[in-house]
Amino acid sequence: MRQGMKKAVYGIALSVLLAPSPVMAGTAEFLELLNILRDNGTIKEQDYARLKNALLAEGPEKPASAPSAVSAQPEPAASAQSEVPIKIDTEGGLEIATYDGRFSFGIGGRLMADAAFYNEDRNVLSNGTELRRAELELDGVIDYDWAYEFELDFGDGNVDVNDAYLTYQGFAPLLFKVGQFKEPFSMDELTSSKYATFMESALPNAFAPGRHLGIGVSNGWEDFTLAGGLFGEAFDDAAENTDPDKRGDESWGLTGRLTWAPIHAKRQVFHLGASSSYRQLGDDVEDHRPRFRARPESHLTNDLRYVDTDRIDKVEDYMLYGLETAGVYGPFSFQGEYIRTDLSRTHGSPDLNFDGWYVQSSWFWTGESQNYSVAKGTFGKIKPLNKYGAFETAVRLSRINLTDGPVRGGEEENVTLAINWYLNQYMRLMANYSWINNDGDADAAGDVAGNDDPEVMQFRFQAAF
Amino acid sequence: MEEAVEKSIKIRSGMLRLIAFGVFALAMAGWVLPVAAEPARHEVLVIAKVSMDPKKHYRYLKPMVDYAAERMKDLGIKEGRVLMAKDNAQMIQFIRQGRVDWVTEPPFSAVLFEEATGIEFLLDKWKKGVPVYHSVFLTRKGSGIRSMKDLVGKVVAFEDPGSTSSYFVPSYMLLKAGHKMVELGSVRERPPADAIGYVFAGQEINVAMWTYKGLVAAGALSNLDMEDDDDVPVSIRGDLEIFHSSSNFLRSVEMVRPDLPAALKKRLREILLASDKDPAAAEVLRAYEKTVKFEEFDKEDIESLKEVRQIVHFMKKRGMTP
C-alpha cells in the first residue's frame, strides 16, 4: 500500500514537471516537493537531479531543441581534449601559466637609479650617482605544489644572489621553504624595496638578520601569520671558504615572526607584529665576532657608516627582539618598530644590548591607500587612481643606539621627508631629504670625526615589473 | 671550559646536520611525489571557473576541491584538480568534453553554460558573505536626475566591460527601457541628443568620484560597492543618491556536469551544505572567495534565475554576453 502511494506521488510529480507547458508559478512549490520526496527516500538522487534540472531549465532554449551558436560548433578532436590552455601575459615582464595551475613561469625585474647630494658638516661626503639595484627575477610553479624564486642583482657591477629558494605549497596556506631568503624578522626588512615608502630602510634595520640559507615554514590564517625558520649564513658567506678568516663552522640562527591584523579592509588596516631571533655564533675568525652598523639611510655614502660597533669579542650568542605596528586609514598610514639585541658574552665580559626604533607616516594626496597584504604582514604595490599617477608625502623619525659599556658604537637620529610620484603601478620617482644627527661616538669605529650632522638630498627613478 | 666549547660545537654540528637532513628530505619528497601513479579521469574531481588570472584563482579553488575530494574517497575519488577556462566558450567546450565536474560561476554565465551544455545547478554560494546583490544607478544630489529617462543626451560611467553589476545589468535596464546607448571615448565627449552615452571608468572608486565631481551625470555600481568605503569613500557618500535599482541576483552558484554519477552529486551537495559547520573547512571557505555557506535554491532564487535567463536572452540578441 505504502509502496503504491509512493509510486503514485512520484508519477504525479513526474508528469507535472515534464509536461510540455509547466506552470512556472508553482516552480518553488514543486522544488520543495522534490526536496521532501528525496529526503524521505521516495525518489532516488538521479531522479531528483533530473526532475530538478527540468524544473530549473526553461523550455525554448534547451540545448536539444535550440542549440546556441556555440553548441553548433564541432567538438574538438580527441587530441585537443587533453590539452590544457596556456595564458601568456606581459606587464613589462613575462608571465606564462597553465590554466590547471600545474605550471607557471615568470620573468620580472627592478631597476633603481639613484643620485645623492650631501650638505656636509665635519666629514667629506661625495655627491654621486649609482645603480642601486638592477635585478632580474625568475619565479615559477612546477607540478602544482612546488614553486621557486630566483633573484639576481647586477646593481653594483657584480652579480649577487638575493632570493633563491624552493617552496612546497601542497599544504597551502602552510608553506615550506628551503634556500636563501629573508629571515622572518621586521616589517621594514620584509617589505620589498619595490614598495617601501623611503629609499632606504630605517636605522634599526642594522639589526635585521636579512637573507640567509635555511629552511622555513609559514602559515596564514584570516587575521594572523606565523613564520619561522632555521638558518645558516648567506650564500656569499658560505662560498668564501678560501678566505682564511672564513674557515670554521658557520653561525646559525632560529627566527620567528607573528603578525596580527584585527582590521584588514582594503583601505583600513591595523597591524601588530612581534619577531624574535636567536643566533649562535660560528667559530670562524670573523663570524664569532658580531658587528652592528648602519649607513645614514643613504647608500651612496658607500662604506661610511657612522654608527658601528666594530667586531665585538667574546660573544657566545645573541637574541633579537622586534615589535612592530602599522595602520592605514584611507590615504593615511603609519608604521613603527622597536628592535633590541642582547649579546651574551664569555670569559666574564659584560653582556651588551643595543636598540633602535623608527616611526613613519604617509599621506597620498591623490587618494590611494597603502596596499597591505594580510597574508605576508607587509605592504605591497600601489596602483594610482588617476592617469597622472599617485603622489605621496611621508615623514620618518628613526634612531639607533650602538653604545653600551665598553662598546662605543655611537648613537644616530635621522629625520627624513619623502615625496613619491608613482607614474603608474610600475614606475615611480622618489625624493628624500634627511637631517642626520650623530653623537661623538658615531665616528665609523674611529675612522671619521664624530658629532657629524650632515643633510642628504637623494633621488631615485624606479621601474619594477 | 673546554667541555663547554666542545658542547657548543656539538650543538652547532647537530643543527647543521638537521638543516642538511631537512633539505635532503624536501628534495626526496619532490622527487618521489611527481612519479606517483596517475589516477584515471573518473577518479579525479575537477573544479572549474572562467579566469583571467589562473595563477591566482588556482589558490582559491584548490583547497576547496581537495577538501571535497578527500570526503569522496569511498566513492572512488582519489584526488581533486582545478581546470580554468579563458572564456565562456572554452568553459562550454570543457563541460561538453567531460573535462570538468564542478563549475563555480556567477548566475549570468551559469545560465549560458546551462543552455549550451545542460549543466545542472547544484547550490547557491554565499560568495564574499552575501547571497544576493543588485545594480544601482547613482547621481550627485541636486543633479536633477531622477530616472533613467533623464539620462538621455547625458553620460553614464560604468566600471569595465567585464563587470556584471556595473555594465551588463545596467545596460540591460537602459536598453530594456527603450533607450539607445553609445560608447564614448572620454567623459568630455557628448552623445547624440536622443541617446545615452557611456564610458568605462576602470575602477569602482572612479565611477563614484566622476559622478561626485559631475564629470558624468550618473554611474552604475553594485549595492555592495556602494556600501564599501574603498569604492565609495565616506566623504562623498552623503552627496550621492541612488535613483534606480535592479532586482536582486544570486551572487554565485555551484553547478555540476549532468552526467556526473548521482552518488558524487549527492555527496558534493552534502559536503558543501555542511561545510559552514565544519571547523576543518573554515580556511577552505575563506580561500574559496570568502564564501560563508552554501544553500539549496529557494523560491526567490528560482524567480531570480528566471529573470537572469530573460536578461541573458535579451542581451544575446543584441550581441552582448556576460
Q: Could you walk me through the main structural features you see in this protein, from its secondary elements to its overall organization?
A:
The complex is a heterodimer of chains A (about 475) and B (about 325). Chain A has helices at about 1-15, 25-40, 45-55, 80, 185-190, 235-240; strands spanning about 85-90, 95-100, 105-120, 130-140, 145-155, 160-170, 175-180, 210-220, 225-230, 250-265, 270-280, 295, 305-310, 315-330, 330-345, 350-365, 370-375, 380, 390-405, 405-420, 425-440, 455-465. Chain A is mainly beta and about 475 residues long. In chain A, the strands form three sheets. Chain A has a 16-stranded antiparallel beta barrel with strand order 3-4-5-6-7-8-9-10-11-14-15-16-19-20-21-22. In chain A, helix 2 packs antiparallel against helix 3. The longest helix of chain A is centred in the first third of the chain and has 16 residues, at about 1-15. Chain A is globular and about 90 Å long. Chain A starts with a helix and ends with a strand. The relative contact order of chain A is 0.11. The model of chain A is unreliable at about 1-5, about 10-25 and about 60-80 (pLDDT under 50). By secondary structure, chain B is α/β, with parallel strands linked by helices. Chain B has eleven helices and 14 strands. In chain B, helix 3 packs across helix 4 (about 105-115) and helix 4 crosses helix 11 (about 300-315). The longest helix of chain B has about 30 residues, at about 1-30. The model of chain B has no long low-confidence stretch (mean pLDDT about 90). The chains are: A mainly beta (about 475), B alpha/beta (about 325).
Strand-helix topology:
The complex is a heterodimer of chains A (465) and B (322).
Chain A: H1 2-17, H2 27-39, H3 45-56, H4 78-81, E1 86-89, E2 94-98, E3 104-119, E4 128-142, E5 146-153, E6 160-171, E7 174-182, H5 187-190, E8 211-220, E9 224-231, H6 235-239, E10 252-264, E11 268-280, E12 293-294, E13 307-308, E14 315-329, E15 332-345, E16 352-364, E17 372-373, E18 378-379, E19 390-404, E20 407-422, E21 427-438, E22 455-464
Antiparallel strand pairs in A: 1-2, 2-3, 3-4, 3-22, 4-5, 5-6, 6-7, 7-8, 8-9, 9-10, 10-11, 11-14, 12-13, 14-15, 15-16, 16-19, 17-18, 19-20, 20-21, 21-22
Helix pairs in contact in A: 2-3
Chain B: H1 2-32, E1 44-50, H2 54-70, E2 79-85, H3 88-96, E3 102-105, H4 107-117, E4 120-125, E5 132-133, E6 135-140, E7 155-158, H5 164-176, E8 180-183, E9 195-200, H6 204-212, E10 218-222, H7 223-226, H8 234-237, E11 240-245, E12 249-250, E13 252-256, H9 262-274, H10 282-287, E14 294-295, H11 299-317
Parallel strand pairs in B: 1-2, 1-3, 7-9, 7-10, 8-9
Antiparallel strand pairs in B: 3-13, 4-13, 4-14, 5-12, 6-10, 6-11
